[in-house]
Design goal:
The complex is a heterodimer of chains A (about 350) and B (about 280).
Chain A (H helix, E strand, L loop, with lengths): L7 H17 L9 H7 L1 H11 L4 H10 L4 H12 L17 E6 L25 H4 L21 H7 L28 H10 L2 H12 L7 E17 L4 E17 L12 E8 L3 H13 L16 H7 L2 H9 L6 H19 L1
Antiparallel strand pairs in A: 1-2, 2-3, 3-4
Helix pairs in contact in A: 2-3, 2-4, 3-4, 3-5, 4-5, 8-10, 9-10
Chain B lengths: L13 H16 L5 E2 L13 H10 L5 E6 L6 H13 L3 E2 L8 E5 L12 E5 L13 H9 L4 H14 L10 E3 L3 E3 L9 H4 L5 E6 L4 E5 L5 E3 L26 E5 L6 E5 L2 H8 L2
Parallel strand pairs in B: 2-3, 2-4, 4-5, 5-8
Antiparallel strand pairs in B: 1-9, 6-7, 6-10, 8-9, 11-12
Classes of the chains: A alpha+beta (about 350), B alpha/beta (about 280).
Chain lengths: ~350, ~280
């Protein structure tokens, strides 16, 4: 006689124990420390912090370790932790103009005040596997510059602003900034919510969206006005003290895209902007974000919006990898009740056809 | 009865629970209307019941008795996982008996045993919008609901009849709630749709990823869409349950060998067990 399968509970426990053993791998090999992940897989940590929306290198390193290096799973772990944290308030806007710059480049001018600073970049490396790394050879020492970088490097994009050739970007004033982790997104979404969503969005998805806009699906004629990376100070206005206190420094990558705009009835021809910001060294993400931000402004600028990258409901509705990963993989859950309904229906339709 | 250390009762902080309860109250006040809420990231994946879990976490108290089913059964892996989540974070009593439960969280089924007043049925909802396959834009579907403009759905059902001779929707079959809002009953088989009508229990629907909550209050009219000459009908089987002999329950098909052998058993494991005897 048929007996229904039981024992799901024990199976789950055993599966998780097996996962734990698999995660550890060969016990003859030393275990990874969080400091090693933070120090030597720093770009993985940067991505997990960015999409996980928590600036904490140690927690992100832990998430990466727990997820066996699966970035999307690590982002999910960090997000699930983040929701349980109490909110004291919102920091003051960071000032990227006062960044302690480690990298700063512009592709729109040959030279810019303060100079082009390459910083620790993969650009111009030849992508040849470096077998000396496998042999764990120490790196070549990097020489020190004779002069320190200027304290405040002017933003390249402001040079265009002085001539009025680029749209001015006014601060939102006192109107509150939205937070989609507290209130659900509503459409049409303001630029504050769009940028927040993009900042948390999946790098791969945004990269593909940005790429599609470069290949004719919503072309925006972009130039990399400026990309800068370095440390900025985060400040919090303490009501009871009456002044702002410094919470600490974070590393960010900022990307300012300059895009052509042929003008409209209301506005003369001028350059427009796309903006990207990400934690740590996340240049690909910041650039992709800036391209998609600009593409989604099509409606507001009176451009014809025909491509996926120009459609905020499409982009924002699908850029979150925690949502996408969960829903795609939920197909693993049992669906046999619905499938039975479909079986019954198809048999009935076929029976009718045979009559 | 210990709860997980470092976390609040039933995982969510009290402020979040209040926010969700406000959304639930609004949903109850406007039956079938989808209320946006600030859905939180849960430690379980989106699409695996995060909406239902947040609703349950917001209404559950220490004296509640929780039942969790998936596909009608208590012992399916995700039901086990969610039941354990609440046993761990809220320390509440759990049960497999429909009659003993005060809160039943479900995915894809309504129990066969009729519910009673005071019970809460919490549905896990993947896609809350009944018009979504017909109109992908939220900005448009909200307008259609506001105007009660549901013509496209009737046209879709009509096209089914024109093409197949019958309505070709077997689950997630659209219903009209309280003569006003078109509602997606979640992917329950249409077999369960009539159970929603005038049900004495409170029915709450949570969609975590889509950030919506909706409700059917007790004793509310719930009508499955149909036409006068093509009345709504539910699934029927030529067989009855191979274990308990029930002829009135929703049956799952179980493949017993690779030569086409199959039997049918109750999808509601508690109903089946109760009929076989204690």
């Amino acid at each position: 006689m048929y007996v229904a399968v039981k024992g799901g509970e024990r199976a789950i426990d055993n599966a998780h124990a097996w996962l734990g053993e698999t995660r550890r791998g060969d016990r003859q090999v030393p275990e990874l420390s969080l400091a090693q992940i933070d120090g030597q897989l720093a770009l993985a940590v940067d991505r997990v912090m960015t999409e996980g929306s928590v600036y904490d290198r140690e927690l992100a390193a832990l998430a990466i370790k727990q997820a066996q290096g699966d970035q999307v799973e690590a982002v999910f772990l960090l997000r699930a932790y983040r929701t349980t944290l109490p909110r004291f308030g919102y920091s003051l806007p960071i000032d990227t103009g006062a960044m302690r710059v480690r990298r700063r480049i512009s592709s729109t001018f040959k030279d810019v005040p303060g100079g082009q600073i390459l910083g620790p970049t993969y650009d111009y490396t030849h992508r040849l596997l470096d077998f000396s790394l496998a042999a764990e050879a120490p790196p070549v020492a990097a020489p020190m510059a004779e002069d320190p970088v200027d304290d405040t490097l002017p933003r390249v994009i402001d040079v265009l602003g002085r001539e009025g050739l680029i749209e001015s970007e006014a601060a939102g004033g006192d109107s509150p900034v939205g937070d989609l982790t507290r209130e659900p997104m509503a459409f049409p979404a303001g630029r504050d919510l769009r940028l927040q969503s993009l900042a948390r969005g999946d790098e791969g998805f945004l990269l593909a969206m940005a790429y599609s806009s470069q290949r004719g699906y919503g072309h925006t004629h972009p130039f990399a006005g400026e990309i800068r990376m370095g440390e900025v100070t985060v400040e919090f206005f303490a009501e009871e003290l009456g002044f702002a206190v410094e919470l600490g420094d974070i590393a960010v990558t900022e990307s300012q895209m300059v895009n052509q705009f042929r003008g409209s009835a209301e506005q003369p021809p001028q350059f427009t902007r796309g903006y990207g910001l990400a934690f740590g060294r996340s240049e690909r993400k910041a650039m992709a974000m800036a391209l998609v931000d600009r593409a989604m402004r099509a409606g507001e600028l009176g451009e014809e919006a025909t491509a996926p990258a120009q459609d905020p409901e499409f982009v924002l509705g699908h850029c979150d990898n925690v949502e996408a990963s969960g829903f795609t993989q939920h197909l693993k859950l049992p669906h046999y009740v619905d499938f039975q309904g479909e079986l019954e229906l198809i048999r009935r339709l076929r029976r009718k056809d045979g009559e | 009865m210990t709860t997980a250390t470092g976390y609040n009762f039933a995982y969510l902080d009290e402020q979040t629970k209040r926010m969700i309860r406000r959304a639930i109250l609004k949903a109850v006040a406007i039956p079938g209307y989808q209320v946006p809420f600030g859905s939180r990231e849960m430690p379980l994946p989106y699409g695996w019941g995060t909406g239902g879990i947040q609703v349950t976490a917001s209404v559950i108290g220490s004296a509640d008795v929780l039942k969790v089913i998936d596909q009608g059964a208590d012992d399916t892996t995700n039901a086990v996982s969610i039941r354990r989540f609440f046993a761990r974070t809220a320390g509440v009593a759990t049960t497999r008996r429909t009659t003993e439960a005060t809160i039943i969280q479900t995915r894809h089924r309504i129990p066969e045993t009729p519910l009673r007043e005071g019970q809460i049925l919490v549905y896990q909802v993947p896609i809350p919008e009944p018009l979504r396959w017909l109109e992908p834009r939220e900005s448009e579907t909200r307008k259609m609901h506001a105007l009660a403009d549901y013509g496209v759905m009737h046209v879709k059902l009509y096209e089914d009849i024109a093409r197949h001779g019958r309505i070709a929707t077997s689950y997630d079959y659209p219903v009209l709630v309280n003569d006003r809002y078109l509602m997606r009953p979640s992917p329950i088989p249409k077999f369960d749709n009539p159970k929603m009508h005038m049900n004495p229990a409170l029915q709450l629907f949570g969609a975590g990823r889509e950030k919506r909550i909706y409700a059917v209050p007790p004793y509310t009219k719930v009508v499955s869409l149909d036409f006068e000459d093509h009345p709504f009908e539910v699934q029927r089987w030529d067989d009855c349950c191979a274990l308990c002999g029930a002829a009135d329950s929703y049956l799952d098909e179980v493949i017993t060998d690779d030569r086409g052998g199959r039997i049918f058993v109750c999808s509601d494991s508690d109903y089946c067990t109760g009929r076989i005897g204690p």
